[in-house]
Amino acid sequence: ATGLLIIVVGRGTKLSEKLMADDKVYEGAIHFGVATNSFDADGDILETKPVPPLTPDTLNDMAASFIGDQMQTPPMVSAIKKDGVPLYKLARKGVEVEREPRLIHVYHFRFGNYREPLGEFRLACTKGTYVRSIANDLGGKIGCGAHLAALRRLASGKFDVADAMPLDALLKLSLRQLEQRVIPFLKLAV
Question: Could you give the number of structural domains in the chain?
Answer without folding.
Answer: 1
